[in-house]
Write a structure and sequence with these properties.
The chain is α/β, with parallel strands linked by helices. The chain has helices at about 5-15, 20-35, 70-75, 170, 185-195, 230-245, 275-285, 290-295, 345-355, 375-385, 410-420, and strands spanning about 35-40, 50-55, 60-65, 75-80, 85-95, 100-110, 120-130, 135-140, 175-180, 200-215, 220, 225-230, 255-260, 300-305, 305, 330, 360-365, 385-390, 395, 400-405. InterPro entries: Peptidase_M18 (IPR001948), Peptidase_M18_dom2 (IPR023358).
């Protein structure tokens, strides 16, 4: 796959994946199109068998079996996350003030709030409802059209806005839907939307909905050298890992896991700190003793975006560790293990990148600044597997619209494809 085809696919995926549930739906469809099958309870997964995938809420695991016995060959894993900082709709959301209808929100994750003002917003997520037969069913919704906005306060009413304006999420971030209509009730609105799709629905019981910016992802810049989009952190890594898995040669056991809830700590049934991945691996190896042995022969690459050095804020980076956009994927290192990178994992990545003719950069936080984290340390701690944290350089992380390079995701995909096809063993025995 060449770079232009890859980037066009990335833009399409970003546009489709307006919530973690939609990201899983989009990845599942691509896996089915490539011949993967949904995991069956009684299915046997052995060497050379068909690729399988497993969905749970906003998380997904996909596996391509290798040609040799798993216990001897080890498992090559790539991990990413499907969620992004956003505004989630509260259960009793309707707010009526001064003749306007708004919806109450809760901030999900560490969102950069200022860019949310004056954007054309829509709603997407999952709705749970009473099926006509009396059971609970779920359906995904995505309105696509702009149905809301969070208007800014005019500078004439706050002359210090450009110097010192704080944002109160409870009081100032409720999206505006319309002039007040007393007949509007969100659950009824959702029920009408689902009925229009010919679903057998009696009542909407609950929902998980998030607002998102309707501006389409785009390749921009004088030479089209940038990718601008919402949710680059971390759908870019999900798509890159997926394409690498689909293009792997099938010789090695290869796995992609995309977890929900990373932005809020990963502690959930479908998060990296939950049992989803370990349960899946135990399905491959029912013998409990075999899992630690398998992990000794395996590796996890945690793919999550990295902070590019900003030309207007160069002092926010260590001067020797400022990744450049389109300078290649970034190995992320932290002495306090906020990133799980070890020297042997980093060395293997550098070797694979060199073979793929891809440049590699390094990132370490300034010694006087706190460091973020990823699913990498969580997975390493849960499974005891060698783990490497890498990512694509990005501007505006956690903004409603982020910026990455049009070369970098494609370069990372080439390295991950080489990783998925690298012969056993990953690491030679110590002399």
């Amino acid at each position: 796959m060449d770079k232009e085809v890859f980037n066009q696919g990335l833009l399409e995926f970003l546009s489709e994946s307006t919530s973690p549930f939609h990201a899983v739906q989009s990845m599942s469809q691509r896996l089915r199109d490539a011949g993967f099958e949904r995991l069956k309870n009684d299915g046997d997964i052995g060497p050379g068998s068909t690729g399988v995938f497993y969905e749970q809420g906003g998380s997904l695991i996909a596996l391509r079996p290798g040609t040799e016995a798993l216990r001897e060959s080890g498992l090559r894993m790539v991990g990413a996350h499907t969620d992004s900082p956003c505004l989630m709709v509260k259960p009793n959301a309707e707010q009526r003030k001064l003749g306007y209808l708004q919806l109450g929100i809760e901030v999900y994750g560490g969102a950069l709030l200022n860019p949310w003002f004056d954007r054309d917003l829509s709603l997407a997520g999952r709705v749970s409802y009473e099926h006509g037969a009396g059971a609970v069913a779920t359906a995904l919704v995505d309105f696509r059209d702009p149905i809301a906005v969070i208007p800014s306060l005019a500078i004439h009413l706050d002359r210090e806005a450009n110097k010192n304006r704080s944002i109160n999420a409870q009081l100032q971030m409720a999206p505006l839907l319309s002039l007040d209509t007393q007949s509007f009730e969100l659950r009824e609105f959702l029920r009408g939307h689902l009925q229009a799709r010919a679903l057998d629905i009696t009542e909407v019981l609950d929902y998980e909905l998030c607002f998102y910016d309707t501006q389409a992802p785009a390749q921009i810049g004088l030479r089209r050298e940038f990718i601008a989009s919402a949710r680059l952190d971390n759908l870019l890594s999900c798509y890159t890992g997926l394409q690498a898995l689909l293009e792997a040669d099938g010789s090695q056991w290869s796995l992609l896991v995309c977890n929900d809830h990373e932005e809020v700590g990963s502690c959930s049934s479908t998060g990296a700190q939950g049992p989803m991945l370990q349960n899946f691996l135990q399905r491959l190896l029912p013998d409990q003793i075999s899992l630690p042995m398998l992990m000794q022969r395996s590796m996890m690459i945690s793919a999550d975006n990295a902070h590019a050095v900003h030309p207007s804020y160069p002092d926010k980076h260590d001067e020797r560790h400022g990744p450049m956009i389109n300078g290649g994927p970034v190995i992320k290192v932290n002495a306090s293990q906020r990133y799980a990178t070890s020297s042997d994992g980093a060395a293997l990545f550098r070797l694979l990148a060199r073979k793929a003719s891809v440049d590699v950069q390094a990132f370490a936080m300034r010694a006087d600044m706190a460091c973020g984290s990823t699913i990498g340390p969580i997975t390493a701690g849960e499974l005891g597997v060698t783990t490497l944290d890498i990512g694509v350089p990005t501007f505006g992380m956690h903004s409603i619209r982020e910026l990455a390079g049009s070369d970098d995701a494609w370069a990372l995909q080439r390295v991950l494809s080489a990783y998925f096809s690298h012969p056993s063993p990953l690491f030679a025995a110590s002399p």
